[in-house]
């Protein structure tokens, strides 16, 4: 069987990665959306094993020591990482696998898996990014500021990606993502 393709989607918090990928997922049953591990606390409505595997810091560090991660990074005040085994299994089964991760982790995957397709989701402007992040209401102002500081650094890496998709209008951006997948599958 033909192996699947690994796609890495990155971009600053609040750019709309989750929104766009959620739409894409509804429209494409050949995608497997990797579930990351994190030490951050679940938000209201998040369930362990669905949005993330929510781990203690000790559990996370144990998995680092066991080499269980394809990539991992510290983002703001927490660890985030992609467990390698399920990704390999789904690729072997022929699924295209989607990682939605921050920039440091994306660069690690790029080094380890040079054939991964690298996509950067960018906001139309920094002001709009800040407005979206605040509008989402999931972080307090101190955390929002830390995420925006990190975003400034992340935005500098856009040019290192195969594709940059500006999330101006959701429907338009989703069509652009579908176009990238279609081109790779052709
Ligand atoms: P990320 O996953 O990159 O952190 P989200 O998908 O959570 O970002 O989006 C951040 C916020 O911006 C959410 O409240 C979402 O509803 C909103 N949003 C996403 N895309 C757009 C868009 N194209 N225009 C306006 N608001 C958007
Ligand atoms: P959030 O706390 O908003 O869910 O995620 C914060 C940031 O961590 C986002 O940019 C998200 O893409 C990123 N992230 C989520 N999972 C992973 C992962 O497995 N590895 C890395 N490196 N970043 C991740």
Which features would summarize this protein structure in a list?
186 residues, alpha/beta, five-stranded parallel β-sheet, 7 helices, binds adenosine-5'-diphosphate
Fraction in helix:
40-55%
Which stretches are low in confidence, meaning pLDDT under 50 for 5 or more residues running?
A: none
Which strand order do you get reading across the main beta sheet? 2-7-1-8-9
Query: Quaternary state, please?
Result: single chain
Radius of gyration: 16 Å
State the end-to-end distance.
16 Å
What string gives the helices and strands in order? EHEEEHEEHEHEHHEH
Largest sheet: 5 strands, parallel
Strand fraction: 15-25%
Number of DSSP-assigned strands: 9
Total count of helical runs of at least 4 residues = 7
Describe it.
- The chain is of the alpha/beta class and 186 residues long.
- It is built from seven helices and nine strands; from the N terminus they run βαβββαββαβαβααβα.
- The strands form two sheets. The protein has a five-stranded parallel beta sheet with strand order 2-7-1-8-9, with helices on both faces. A four-stranded mixed beta sheet has the order 4-3-6-5.
- Strand 5 (69-75) and strand 6 (78-83) form a beta hairpin.
- The longest helix is centred in the C-terminal third of the chain and has 16 residues, at 170-185.
- Adenosine-5'-diphosphate (ADP) binds next to helix 1 and helix 5.
């Amino acid at each position: 069987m033909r192996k699947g393709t690994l796609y890495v989607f990155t971009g600053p918090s609040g750019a709309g990665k989750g929104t766009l990928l959620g739409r894409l997922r509804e429209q494409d049953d050949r995608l497997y959306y990797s579930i990351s591990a994190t030490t951050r606390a679940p938000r209201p409505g998040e369930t362990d094993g669905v949005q993330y595997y929510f781990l203690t810091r000790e559990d996370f560090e144990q998995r680092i020591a066991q080499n269980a991660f394809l990539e991992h990074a510290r983002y703001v005040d927490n660890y985030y990482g992609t467990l390698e085994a399920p990704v390999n299994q789904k690729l072997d089964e022929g699924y295209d696998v989607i990682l939605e991760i921050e920039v440091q982790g994306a660069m690690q995957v790029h080094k380890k898996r040079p054939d991964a397709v690298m996509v950067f989701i960018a906001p139309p402007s920094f002001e709009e990014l800040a407005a979206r992040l605040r509008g989402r209401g999931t972080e307090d102002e101190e955390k929002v500021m830390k995420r925006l500081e990190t975003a400034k650094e992340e935005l500098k890496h856009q040019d290192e990606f195969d594709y940059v998709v500006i999330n101006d209008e959701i429907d338009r951006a989703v069509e652009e993502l579908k176009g990238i997948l279609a081109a790779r599958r052709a």
